[in-house]
Specification:
The protein has six helices and eight strands; from the N terminus they run H-E-E-H-E-E-E-H-H-E-E-H-E-H. The protein has helices at residues 7-34, 61-68, 105-112, 115-132, 151-154, 172-177, and strands at 42-45, 56-59, 73-76, 88-93, 98-102, 136-137, 144-145, 162-163. It binds zinc ion (2 copies).
């Protein structure tokens, strides 16, 4: 199965593809949280290094979190076709999924690209902005908010939150909540 001779190019390609799939799965997770779906099993996309793979993987939110705790780990559909043994090793085998851990350079690359690091930073910044300023908005909407009980405001994704009014009129929902 190994046809390409350049090991570092393969490492890099694998790390790029896998970190992209991880980002997509992180969005899937946000959607689950946003709609408060307490389903025991979620449908995730296989995080193998093959960018043409479209396999789905079923795992619970807890199982997902356990993999995500290690920035060098990814989950794949449970078979050898989804493993690139020259850049990763299998650390967990279950009937539903396998977990692979990147080795060497690709491990460092995968950890560096972990969206959790950036996401946590953005979230902290948002929280700080929310406590120091009374208004916020999303660049995708024509209104601003000033009440954190506002349902419309709560639908704004953390990464879309901006402090201030953005020179937009106050949201009618927030206006109503003021009374
Ligand atoms: Zn796959
Ligand atoms: Zn509002």
């Amino acid at each position: 199965m190994v046809l390409v001779g350049d090991a570092s190019a393969r490492e890099e390609r694998a790390a790029t593809n896998q970190t992209l799939f991880r980002e997509i799965n992180e969005r899937v997770k946000e959607l689950h949280e946003g709609f408060r779906l307490d389903l025991p099993l979620g449908e995730w996309i296989c995080e193998c290094a093959d960018d043409t793979c479209i396999d789905k993987v079923a795992m619970s939110a807890n199982e997902y979190e356990a993999v995500r705790n290690n920035g060098a780990r990814f989950f794949v559909a449970p078979s050898d076709e989804h493993v690139w043994p020259d850049v990763e090793r299998v650390t967990v085998r279950t009937a539903k999924y396998w977990v692979v851990e990147k080795v060497g350079n690709s491990g460092a690359m995968a950890r560096e690209a972990d969206p959790r690091t950036a996401g946590v930073r953005a979230r902290l910044e948002t929280e700080r902005a929310m406590t120091t300023t009374a208004t916020w908005h999303s660049p995708r909407a024509e209104i601003h908010h000033n009440n954190d009980q506002c349902a419309t405001s709560r639908r704004i994704k953390p990464r879309d939150r901006r402090r201030g009014t953005g020179e937009r009129p106050l949201c009618p929902n927030c206006k109503r909540l003021a009374f």
